[in-house]
Amino acid sequence: MEELIRKWQSFSFIILVLCCCVVTSCGNEDFVIEYDDDEIEEIERELPLVNITSKTYDAETKTTVYNMEYSSTDPFGNPVMLSGCVIFGDEVMEGKHAKGMVLYNHFTIYHKNECPSRGGIFFPQKVVGSGLVAVAADYYGFGSTENKNQAYCMSRCNAQASIDALLAARELLKREGYSWGSFLFNTGYSEGAQTSIGVLRLCAEKYPDIRFTHTIVGGGPYDMGMTFRELLKSGSTIMPSSVINTLLAYNEFCCLGIERSEMLKEPTLSKIDKYLLSKNYSTSYLEKNIATQNIADWMTADLLDINSEMSSKLMSAFEKDNLTSGWTPRRKERITLIHNILDDVVPVGNTTALEEFFAEQGLAVSSNSDNKYNLGNVYVLKESWTPLVAKMDYHDYGAVTYVMELFTTISKHMNIPLWISVSDLI
Q1: I want to staple 397 with a disulfide (CB 3.0 to 4.6 A). Which of 87, 135, 257, 387 is the partner?
Q2: What span, in angstroms and rounded, lies between the C-alpha atoms of 20 and 291?
Q3: Beta strands in 230-333 (DSSP E)
Q4: What is the 8-class DSSP label of residue 73?
Q5: CA distance 266 to 258
Q6: Could you count the other beta carbons within 10 Å of the beta carbon of residue 122?
Q7: Which conformational region is residue 255 in: left (phi greater than 0), alpha (psi within -120 to 50 degrees), or beta?
Q8: Stretch 227-231: mean pLDDT, rounded?
Q9: 15 pLDDT more than 50
């Protein structure tokens, strides 16, 4: 029945089919098809309604961009229309055929125009030089839902948005007369890495027909609880905005009922709405204006105490979305994990915990690059990469290493020359 469902083209057709079944059943009980609420919900989830909101062409990068809105769910599980985009190069546009797709899960953003459907597509535009189509979700809180607070670093919510974007993109491209090959890559760095592993978890739980050629991620906060404990231990962060945004998201969407004033001190407390939640400011501006790097300057004593009732609430919420425990990965994945050991934003312990979890689940975890293309293998690349470019921190420089590893992996799978260099990224 799942295969039949995937051939249906829209919600209206689904309703028509259901109605026809009811009419047919009145004449012959042998043809009765009954759907319970869970099955109907599964049908709706498998085939998101998708609308093209704009189509543009970028002559400089020679890419075509379809911006779209598609049906998905919000952090509470309610139906919502989210937004994202589909990107491809001239070769795909002219031949109406792509070699495959890459699911791009974006990293931390704050300004409303940094999301994919509003122009934040520098990286996926580089990917499509391989002949792939790139699909990117905005996540909840950006694009069509930019008037809502973002579900920052909530892997289950963002993964659902990403999978629904992929399914919607397939429908959109089919409707526009495009076809594509079997390559499918799952990618992301930092928050996007967390989303990518969340995508693997959701596919293992609910989407058996979505199979990835390779998942390549880097620098992700896979265990938010451990990340929070490490933050309290270190006492500082070079990205206070990301910490604050995480606290706000988990408090709101996990319904913890904590007042902002219980977590944050002045003057940071009064800056939240204007600087962070307005989405009118970029990351670099926020880091200079919303809070200092010393967390004791803006965190309350209760929040700084890992054993307080408030911190316990947060830790419980973090654990429910922990990607390093509580699920069963599929055995035939290819996964590459990359992390700069010197990362000063996301502790490398996140990747260590994830590789240990994969090993416990029976996947072959290895630091030998000769094994990374084998099914069931998790390739781990953890090294100390010191920035060679001024004003680039360890976390950002780890992203450059990640991207080159990603492109190298894609070119190897597809047996094509590497189409990009480090100079194209810096």
Answers
A1: 387
A2: 60
A3: none
A4: E
A5: 17
A6: 9
A7: left
A8: 97
A9: no
> Residue 107's pLDDT is what?
97
For residues 185 and 132, is the Cβ–Cβ distance under 8 A? yes
Q: Is residue 90 pLDDT above 90, yes or no? A: yes
Instruction: Indicate the burial class of 147 (C-beta count within 10 angstroms; 0-12, 13-18, 19 or more).
Output: exposed
Is 104 exposed, middle or buried (CB count within 10 Å of its CB: 0-12, 13-18, 19+)? buried
Closest CA relative to residue 103, chosen from 79, 146, 62, 132: 132
pLDDT, tens only, 132-172: 999 999 999 999 999 999 999 999 999 999 999 999 999 99
Q: Letter for the amino acid at 421? A: S
DSSP E strands, 148-196: 179-189
Q: What one-letter code names the amino acid at 422?
A: V
How far apart are alpha carbons 86 and 338 in whole angstroms? 26
Q: Which residue has the higher pLDDT, 240 or 16?
A: 240
201 token code pair: 């978890």
pTM: 0.88
* Mean pLDDT (whole number) for 399-421: 93
Residues 286, 153: Cα–Cα separation, whole Å: 18
Residue pLDDT, tens place only, 324-342? 999 999 999 999 999 999 9
Which residue bears the tokens 């008037």? 147
Euclidean distance between CA atoms 270 and 261, whole angstroms? 9
Between the two ends of the chain, the Cα-to-Cα distance in Å is 48
- When mean pLDDT is compared across 150-159, 168-177, 266-275, 382-391, the lowest value belongs to 382-391
Q: How many CA atoms lie within 13 A of 81 on its CB side?
A: 9
pLDDT of residue 362 exceeding 60, the answer is: yes
Q: Max Cα separation, the chain?
A: 76
Q: Is 116 left (phi over 0), alpha (psi -120 to 50) or beta?
A: alpha
Sequence-ordered list of residues with C-beta below 8 angstroms from that of 302, at least 6 positions apart, any chain: 262, 263, 308, 309, 310, 311
CB atoms within 10 A of CB 188: 30
DSSP 272: I
Q: 13 is written with which tokens?
A: 């057709």
Burial of 386 (0-12, 13-18, 19+ CB in 10 A): exposed
Q: What's the rounded Cα separation, in Å, for the pair 291 and 265?
A: 10
For residues 389 and 423, give the distance between their C-alpha atoms in angstroms, rounded to a whole number.
Answer: 11
